């Protein structure tokens, strides 16, 4: 009788009646055409953007940091705040229907603007992985730091998402009169993550490579957290991307409570490399009207926002949009790829 039941269940599985995959999982072989992303989300604040995000029917959601405002070295506090975010009904709908990946910035790390000396970083990282439903056997759980890569699609329609950890290994910054001073010799990624990143980019077969960090990559002028506070690391990153041969790299970032689209053109990137900053989901820097940024394309946006990347595989172009409540579009940028 037992053997008959086993044969019956096997037949059901083969027939597709039972599936090992949930609705939210994206197979590495499935075409991906729409990616939504955002940052800076207070778990105890109104969250009006999940419904327009759901209406866009993304194939993937990417958290880019400050996914909750934990701001505590007490892990029970962080755990409770993650639980509160998971219980939000609109976010729960997204989580049920869309694959979710991500990395942290500082508030979900546990302490504002913290780096490698945060004592609870390992425990905090594991709580974030639990929030993101990272499998127990995933490579990122077996090493230090929170960095990871994810490949979607196959052959000529492949997208690679590289999530950089700009907290766990980052050196200290000195702040004077609310402005961070550059740390000329300081590190952001640490050597293990650098070696991993070089390999991920060099071996990438993807037509589109999205490279993500909580803090901004390109800006050099503002006095807040950014890659330019570690000038050697910023140049090294741009050198590594350019030398890797990875196709169509695009930078995505959060943190700033504003949104903007940027482009750097130099000898390494003669056709330019773009960065899209999307922040925040629940609050923005309402007092700001302008801020110097030589790389900005278009306007600075200080409204609740999220990002959406729509890939047209036939035309070989990506439409990036910065969107807001009711699906309003605040900025757009088309980026071609080969």
From TrEMBL:
Q: What Pfam families does its record include? A: PhoD
What Gene3D superfamilies does the record tag this protein with?
PhoD-like phosphatase
Q: Write down the superkingdom of origin.
A: Bacteria
Signal peptide as annotated in the record: 1-24
UniProt xrefs under CDD domains:
MPP_PhoD
Residue ranges constituting the PhoD-like phosphatase metallophosphatase domain according to the UniProt record: 49-287
Q: Which UniProt keywords apply?
A: Signal
Keyword Signal included in the entry's annotation: yes
User: Does the keyword Ribonucleoprotein belong to this entry?
Assistant: no
Could you tell me what this protein is called? PhoD-like phosphatase metallophosphatase domain-containing protein
- The source organism is Algoriphagus confluentis
């Amino acid at each position: 009788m037992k053997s008959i039941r086993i044969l019956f269940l096997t037949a059901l599985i083969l027939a597709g009646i039972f599936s090992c995959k949930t609705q939210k999982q994206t197979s590495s072989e499935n075409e991906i055409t729409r990616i939504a992303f955002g940052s800076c989300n207070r778990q105890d604040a109104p969250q009006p953007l999940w419904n327009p995000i759901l209406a866009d029917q993304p194939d993937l959601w990417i958290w880019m940091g400050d996914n909750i405002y934990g701001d505590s070295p007490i892990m029970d506090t962080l755990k409770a705040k993650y639980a509160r975010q998971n219980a939000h009904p609109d976010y729960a709908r997204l989580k049920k229907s869309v694959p979710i990946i991500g990395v942290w910035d500082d508030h979900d790390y546990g302490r504002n603007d913290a780096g490698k000396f945060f004592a609870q970083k390992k425990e905090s990282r594991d709580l974030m992985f639990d929030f993101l439903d990272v499998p127990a056997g995933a490579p990122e759980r077996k090493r230090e730091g929170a960095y990871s890569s994810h490949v979607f699609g196959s052959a000529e329609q492949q997208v690679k998402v590289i999530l950089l950890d700009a907290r766990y290994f980052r050196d200290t910054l000195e702040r004077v009169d609310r402005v961070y001073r550059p740390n000329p010799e300081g590190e952001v990624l640490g050597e293990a993550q650098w070696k991993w990143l070089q390999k991920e980019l060099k071996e990438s077969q993807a037509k589109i490579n999205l490279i993500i960090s909580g803090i901004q990559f390109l800006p050099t002028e503002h006095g807040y957290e950014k890659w330019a506070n570690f000038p050697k690391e910023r140049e090294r990153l741009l050198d590594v991307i350019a030398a890797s041969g990875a196709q169509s790299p695009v930078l995505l970032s959060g943190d700033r409570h504003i949104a903007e689209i940027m482009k750097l053109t130099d000898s390494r990137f003669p056709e330019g490399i773009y960065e899209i900053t999307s922040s925040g989901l629940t609050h923005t820097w309402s007092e700001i009207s302008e801020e110097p940024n030589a790389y900005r394309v278009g306007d600075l946006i200080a409204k609740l926002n999220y990002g959406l990347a729509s890939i047209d595989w036939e035309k070989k172009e990506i439409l990036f949009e910065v969107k807001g409540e009711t699906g309003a579009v605040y900025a757009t940028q088309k980026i071609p790829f080969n």
